[in-house]
Amino acid sequence: MIRNLILSGGYLHDFATTSPILAGVLAGAGIESEIEEDFGVLASERLHEFDILSLNCCRTKWDGHAAYRPEWSYEIPAAERAGLLRFLAAGKGLLALHTCTLCFGDWPEYREIVGAWWEYGKTTHPPIQEHAIRVHRDKHPIVSGVADFTITDELYHRFRFAGPVEPLMEAEWEGETWPLLWAKTHGPARVCYNALGHDAVAFAEPGFGKLLQRGARWVAGELG
Asked: How far apart are CA 54 and CA 6, in angstroms?
């Protein structure tokens, strides 16, 4: 049994709803999840009881949104940075979803781990609406056999990238094509970022669910 810890919570997203849904989706692939809202778990030994860390959260300094600072401002302490790095150095997996590109904006190495970040004044998304998702199912075990689908969701685009990524899933907006899913490594750790997942409606799309399951299994070392 693969054990997964979902780090949950933050602003403008209903993580209290979507994190249990995520746990249920992954249970369909034989993955047992716990949900944690205390980010101090990153510095604890309990973190190392898990095979995967899933980030379904949105906590940062909010340099770009001063109105959110009183409730949600968060600077990741050194102990929590070190704990996450130890987890990855042990070859554990990281499944990063949607808003995690906004997290930990005061920690440059985190941006390298995930592969991209939300750059205020550049990165954006259109209103929630239906989007056609193109899956490059011949490029990686995560997307193998997964058909194109449509989803009603936020379409994050214009990320700032830490380096080159191989898009495994894309969508078009305003005549340009944007990457929404990639897989990479950080030392011995496997990392998968999936930009979808704003709300329960998005999580109900079977194609998205299949990619979550396969992404989790890949970062855990079960695929590829």
From this structure: 5
**Cβ-proximal residues to 46 (8 Å cutoff; 6+ apart), any chain:** none
Phi, psi (degrees; rounded to nearest 5) at 174: 55, 45
- 167-178 burial, b at 16+ Cβ within 10 Å, e below that, comes to ebbbbeeeeeeb
Q: Which two tokens stand for residue 66?
A: 């001063």
Q: What is the DSSP letter of 76?
A: -
Among the listed residues 131, 186, 134, 188, the one whose alpha carbon sits nearest the alpha carbon of residue 156: 131
For residue 73, the enclosing domain spans 2-219
- On whether residue 202 sits in a domain, the answer given is yes
- Do the domain assignments include residue 82? yes
The residue type found at 5 is L
Q: CA dist 169 to 104, 178, 223, Å?
A: 25, 9, 18
pLDDT in tens, 86-113: 999 999 999 999 999 999 988 999 999 9
Can you list the alpha helix ranges (DSSP code H) found in the chain? 15-27, 69-72, 78-89, 108-114, 200-203, 206-219
Average pLDDT, the chain: 93
Number of domains forming the structure of the chain: 1
The string of pLDDT tens digits covering residues 162-209 is: 999 999 999 998 888 999 999 999 999 999 999 999 999 999 999 999
Residue 224 lies in a domain: no
Give this prediction's pTM.
0.95
Q: Do the bridges between strand 93-97 and strand 52-58 make them parallel or antiparallel, or are there none, so unpaired?
A: parallel
DSSP string, 2-32: EEEEEEEEESSS-HHHHHHHHHHHHHTTTEE
